[in-house]
From TrEMBL:
Assembly, per entry: Component of the IFT complex B, at least composed of IFT20, IFT22, IFT25, IFT27, IFT46, IFT52, TRAF3IP1/IFT54, IFT57, IFT74, IFT80, IFT81, and IFT88. Interacts with IFT88. Interacts with IFT57 and IFT70B.
Intracellular or extracellular location(s): Cytoplasm, Cytoskeleton, Cilium axoneme; Cytoplasm, Cytoskeleton, Cilium basal body
PANTHER family reported for this sequence: INTRAFLAGELLAR TRANSPORT PROTEIN 80 HOMOLOG, OUTER SEGMENT 5
Top-level taxonomy: Eukaryota, Metazoa, Chordata, Craniata, Vertebrata
WD repeat spans: 101-133, 183-215
Natural source organism: Buteo japonicus
Protein name as annotated: Intraflagellar transport protein 80 homolog
Keywords: Cell projection, Cilium, Cytoplasm, Cytoskeleton, Repeat, WD repeat
Domain IFT80 second beta-propeller: 299-587
InterPro entries xref list: Beta-prop_IFT80_2nd, TPR_IFT80_172_dom, WD40/YVTN_repeat-like_dom_sf, WD40_repeat_dom_sf, WD40_rpt
GO biological process, one term: cilium assembly
GO cellular component assignments: axoneme; centrosome; intraciliary transport particle B
Functional summary from the UniProt entry: Component of the intraflagellar transport (IFT) complex B, which is essential for the development and maintenance of motile and sensory cilia.
Main location (coarse class): cytoplasm
Amino acid sequence: MRLKTSLSKEPKHILFSCVGWTTADELYSCSDDHQIMKWNLLTSETTRVVKLPDDIYPIDLHWFPRSIGGKKQSQAESFVLTSSDGKFHLISKLGRVEKSVEAHCGAVLAGRWNYEGTALVTVGEDGQVKIWSKSGMLRSTLAQQGTPVYSVAWGPDSGKVLYTSGKQLIIKPLQPNAKVLQWKAHDGLILKTDWNSVNDLILSAGEDCKYKVWDSYGRLLYSSQPHEYPITSVAWAVDGELFAVGSFHTLRLCDKTGWSYALEKPNTGSIFNIAWSIDGTQLAGACGNGHVIFAHVVEQRWEWKNFEITLIKRRTMEVHNVINDAVDLLEFRDRVIKASLNYGHLVVSTSLQCYVFSTKNWNTPLIFDLKEGTVSLILQAERHFLLVDGGGLYLYSYEGRLISSPKFPGMRTDILNAQTVSLSNDTLAVKDKADEKVIYIFEALSGKPLGDGKPLSHKTEIVEIALDQKGLTSERKIAFIDKNRDLHITSVKRFGKEQKIVKIGTMVQTLAWNDTSNILCGIQDTRFTVWYYPNTVYVDKDLLPKTLYEKDASEFSKNPQIVHFVGNQITIRRADGSLIHLSISPYPAILHEYVSSSKWEDAVRLCRFVKDQTMWACLAAMAVANKDMATAEIAYASIGEIDKVQYINSIKDLPSKESRMAHILLFSGNTQEAETLLLQTGLIYQAIQVNINLYNWDRALELAVKHKTHVDTVLAYRQKFLEDFGKKETNKRFLQYAEGLQVDWNKIKAKIEMEIAKERERAAASPTVRASVTVQQ
């Protein structure tokens, strides 16, 4: 990826100060010559909008946000201009000064609208940070300090303000008495800062000639090497994937993790101000020598299996098939904004249309018009893809048919990215920004909330989510990383009862599901880990460590990211931008395939061929999950779990199908479901016995009393249990029912034998009786 820069032959200004985009092709600029100029990139025309009064020397410009109250305007209509005389000016698109407000003593160094357009923050040489209403009325003075404040930015929810103070960065919430976060960020004066609403990351640039990337807690994620000259400007692209850095004769394009894609050395002087266009395809810089520099992002690359696609010009893509070296050129009517290549399809969004190509045929794309111009995210699944824009979420089939458009209360689509949205063939998951502990889960085909309609909620804030891609809808799983960097997994099909959220990893930096089987990989602490069968946690938790593949991750350096996990190939991007390709064993994926087709004999044969304990452990868990106890017995025997083999054998000897089913559930630790199953099929004694075996005495007595049977059995076992440990009865309920009761073991044994005989008779009479309860894994 690189920047293609262009400069006009003659500078249009004297000394530059600021630039701002109204649409993706129209830019306004102003400078110390008091002129506001309009640049049209489609016609390459430059026109003067207005000449400001001679006493106004502009410093900063920021357009009023385009989306207000959920309604998106086609273009911005007014902007705020700050100036050296201590005022800010509200100016219309036509150049009329609507209002001038005395704001600071000395120059107003920066002014920024919040994302909703309801408030304006200004900072000045007097060290004050002030909040103003939309109409320019002072609401509050947020901070006062002894040094000038050079730059300011709003937090993603418009509830906090980030500003500079000498070498320090300060985050101050608008609520009074809320905790203020302050840290030393640079060794020199901080000149510029920016805070992205999508990835929640902060940029800072200073006179120490470095630029740095921080998270919203003030933790350093990246620090550049010192440049030759001070860094005079930094700016995030709207989607938070890229940022630009400006210095003397220097323009740099960087990834959000900090490493540099491209370095340009234009003849510009210092670049004082950088503004990204609304669609994130180009940027403009205000240069010290009076020029405006325009730079387009080109040469983005997408890879999938044997295809490599490069955006060679703004409207042209090159497709390279590395197997036969065939090259195809794809031409578009408008410039390309976003693209995604996966599952045998290339999806490209331009400013007005969406193109869907099949990798089998590049000549005949399917084309449909877009409702909203700027697509900010494309996600693909095997059967369909998702487009995210400022207006909403839209799910399309690869034939171009709109399938659904899910919505939830307070939805803000402009701040969604690949970490906060996940798509599978039947499910869509979206992390809520208003409450970061909540994930909304939708049925893909209807766009309605899944299950009982309640969102999935966790006890701490969630950072990243990912849905598995294969298997049945009823078994769909979602993995997510929370703020503490713990990895959790849970089922998305939820009716009534709270679904169990299980922790399967700690200190996890990044994760990805495989595209063809439900294998999960992640980097946790210093280890690269692959969970070959994550569902093991719901089947036999003790078995989970045996189903993992682990490898030392020190070669990936700090903060690596998993780019994709296709087939048995994993691509990881290191912090310096280099890509590392890893291969894992292909056998677990083949095992998943056999099990999904119920080819148990083939699965056993594969494990015997591979002779790997991990494979046997995966097969054992898969067999128990699918209630195939014969295969489970072979697999457990192969990994030396003799106690489990004996238990499986004891399950086989049970007289009725219901009892066997209940004990399989018990084997997986689902006590409640096992008991419910036995009670619904009338096996009261067996339900009581299950609770006695688990030493769940209160529940055993409760069932016996409720069904008026085997109270003496429960009391006898309880008495024997206490005698074995030399204890006396202290439970009031047991004392109450034990009054005047003599334990007769012969009588109890006879009753138990009678219950077993009764169950055998019943099983013989109706061998095809099925349990009427749905067994939830």
